[in-house]
């Protein structure tokens, strides 16, 4: 049998990326086909923690295009997109940027959590995934899915399995179950072969639906 060609990741790939790809190709028949199709791209971190979470709140329940337009207007309001500056903004100005009253409340709560050190950014490197999720979901407007996307895309944690992610559900349905709907237990069963690199496998499942890498 000919060896499977390994993708060549970008220079700023997570340190575990190549090892994760080897593991997944060896353990999973779908990954064996999927990973070589997407060489030269990989998971990449974006922005700082506060900005990443603020963008996730702004983008809730609206299209990507609309979210970008609102974010561009909101981003222009403070001198710098940092918690202390956001807390100085007037509610009317934030509403005029296109934010709903609820999203204004969420962004203020996010800024307060950061300004008051209620999230332990400096300690996250030593905290496990569940502990970080617990901190993040205590912020209004941030649920488990947003916290999991943050773990994957900002902290680049290798073994996150976002069970409620529609893209993951759809991709597993198509790739493993011939398009049949899948349960959470079936997703866990598939992912048993992925561990300890569920984030990487999830990223490739997303690529099976849309080749363009997504960032949060």
Automatic annotation (TrEMBL):
It comes from the Bacteria. It comes from Hydrogenophaga palleronii. Transmembrane segments: none annotated. InterPro entries: Alkylbase_DNA_Glycosylase/TA, DNA_glycosylase, HhH-GPD_domain. Residues 58-210 form the HhH-GPD domain. GO terms for molecular function: alkylbase DNA N-glycosylase activity. Coiled coil: none annotated. Keywords: DNA damage, DNA repair, Glycosidase, Hydrolase. PANTHER family: DNA-3-METHYLADENINE GLYCOSYLASE. It catalyses: Hydrolysis of alkylated DNA, releasing 3-methyladenine, 3-methylguanine, 7-methylguanine and 7-methyladenine. Its EC number is 3.2.2.21. The keyword Hydrolase applies. This is DNA-3-methyladenine glycosylase II.
């Amino acid at each position: 049998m000919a060896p499977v060609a390994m993708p060549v990741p970008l220079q700023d790939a997570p340190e575990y990326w190549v090892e994760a790809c080897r593991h997944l190709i060896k353990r999973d028949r779908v990954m064996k086909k999927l990973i070589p199709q997407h060489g030269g791209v990989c998971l990449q971190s974006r922005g700082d923690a506060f900005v990443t979470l603020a963008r996730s709140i702004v983008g809730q329940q609206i299209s990507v295009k609309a979210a970008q337009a609102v974010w561009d207007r909101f981003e222009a309001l403070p001198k710098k997109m940092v918690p202390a500056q956001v807390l100085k903004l007037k509610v009317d100005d934030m509403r005029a940027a296109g934010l709903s009253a609820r999203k204004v409340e969420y962004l203020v709560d996010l800024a307060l959590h950061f300004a008051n050190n209620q999230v332990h950014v400096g300690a996250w490197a030593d905290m496990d995934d569940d502990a970080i999720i617990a901190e993040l979901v205590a912020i209004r407007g941030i649920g488990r899915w947003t916290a999991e996307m943050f773990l994957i895309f900002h902290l680049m944690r290798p073994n996150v399995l976002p069970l409620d992610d529609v893209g993951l559900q759809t991709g597993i349905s198509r790739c493993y179950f011939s398009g049949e709907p899948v349960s959470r237990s079936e997703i866990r069963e598939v992912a048993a072969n992925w561990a300890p690199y569920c984030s990487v496998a999830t990223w490739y499942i997303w690529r099976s639906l849309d080749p363009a890498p997504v960032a949060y």
